[in-house]
Design goal:
This protein has five helices and six strands, in the order H-H-H-E-E-E-H-E-E-H-E. It is of the alpha+beta class and 156 residues long. The relative contact order is 0.21. InterPro entries: DUF3574 (IPR021957). This is DUF3574 domain-containing protein.
Length: 156
């Protein structure tokens, strides 16, 4: 460090510039914070919205036997639990997942992903999503329902 200091102001300036550029990629902007604290519009088009995707496994244990969660059971869950909470709309897509269970075994199973978009920082919607996770885990004997949250600029 002393060698750099003795080289002069140009070396210090260049070193500071390199350090600044190196650190610039370390922090991603927090769009939610920007939206709250900045008068500037964050989105080029549309509004800042929250996007949550839930990932549901479609098998479960009945005793020691693994059985499928049927299409009718899934549709009943969506119709009775999801739709009343998110009447404005949702998207469901098929997936194939795998995960490491509490027993240390890798399980592969058919899955469903459910995506909802709602106003950013809407605590009521976030709580409804938590309710959906708990209902599904209890009803279908699941260890978890994975939740992935992000913010996106959305226009309809």
């Amino acid at each position: 460090m002393l060698k750099t200091l003795t080289l002069g102001r140009a070396s210090l300036t260049a070193g500071a510039l390199v350090l600044t550029l190196a650190l610039a990629g370390c922090a991603a902007p927090n769009t939610q914070l920007q939206a709250k604290n900045s008068p500037e519009k964050v989105c080029q088009a549309g509004d800042l919205m929250a996007k949550t995707t839930l990932y549901y496994g479609l098998t479960r244990y009945q005793g020691k036997k693994v059985v499928d969660i049927t299409k009718a059971q899934w549709e009943n869950y969506v119709d009775k639990e999801v739709t009343p909470r998110f009447r404005d709309g949702l998207t469901i897509f098929n997936a194939q997942g795998q995960w490491l269970g509490k027993d240390g075994q890798v399980t592969k199973e058919p899955s469903r992903a459910l995506m909802v978009i709602y106003p950013a920082n809407d605590k009521a919607s976030s709580e409804k999503i938590q309710e959906l996770r708990q209902i599904y885990m209890k009803r279908f004997n699941q260890e978890s329902v994975m939740r992935v949250d992000s913010t996106k600029c959305v226009s309809f």
